Amino acid sequence: MFLGLPEKKHHYMDPWWTTFEDRASQLNRGGRKLVYFYERPDSSTFRYRVYNMIESINSTDNGFAAAHFTRDDLPAMERIVKRASALILCRVSYSDAIAQLIMMAKAANCKVFYDVDDLIYDLDLVAMIMETLSEKPIERVLNTYYAYVSRLGAVLKMCDEAIVTNEHLANRVQEFTHKPVHVVCNFMNNAQITYSEELFQQKVSNEFGRDESLHIGYFSGSPTHNQDFQLAVPALINLMKRHRNIKLRLVGYLDSPNLEHYESRIERLPMMDFLNLQLAQAKTEINIVPLQDNVFTNSKSDLKYFETGIVGTVTVASPVFAYKQSIEDGVNGFLSDDQSWEEKIENIIVKFDTTYPNIAKTAFKDCRERYSPAAQQRAILNLFS
Question: 272 pLDDT band (50/70/90 cuts)?
């Protein structure tokens, strides 16, 4: 594990739990008012597709102002959309109240966008999605998935245009809606970048010095990634047999069958806020992102690359669309097909002292330049100009 990094980060208070009036007042600062709507703030989609977007828009005096609103704000939304230049519904499910909100916006000549970060709106793909996520096709689960997906798809079709995270997903959404679709990638917020830079600079100051252990991390988030993780398990077993200093760092709720023999060398960490996650990733030498190759996984973003690259940790990822776009194999990370996990990770271990620092520094520079609010601001504002 890398030396010189702090033991833990102080608890980070989520900044988005503000009052309705505080958020409404944010719209007073600019001429063109952008209203984001998300049903209930969380640390995943909301953070990337709403909070970070608003931080980017509001970071300079550019003639725009943005604020977010939630399901609890619906009774007061009429006066908000009457002032708005655009309403952006992020991964919102159909309800009578949402249909009414869309009608109010259109009546006020406010263009309505739908922001979606997953291929999770098309009923024809539900069976494939459930299989990818290891969901059992029992009655209760089927009802949940088919209801959820159909309600997302219904709202998506009601909107004027769509915003997605990559070109692959853009093509799929365009086929589904036959409406304009725009790409704005996921990126980090300023607090995340500032703390990550501190962690990276500490690693550089220590010349990437570390103790005898070497951590391979998998930052899954939920049990729905079990099937993805299994793609790398045979390689991990062989590597742990060969290198007794290897430890696994598993973050989130993940099963690890076939690894029982190595349980004493597995560190399991719970879900955590995004700054403590940056610290956990900074302490990890190798980040793995195994993914099945299908239309669902190709629609995902490359966030597991840029959130580890910004802290100087090297990623090995499956070559699905977003990771092929962001990683140049052997330059700022590595790409691995299903048969190459052991070879790719072994190569990092053997050449750690000679090649790892350069790859980590290249990844940091790339992530710092491309995945910040400032870097993405123009792409966002162009949608609403």
Answer: confident
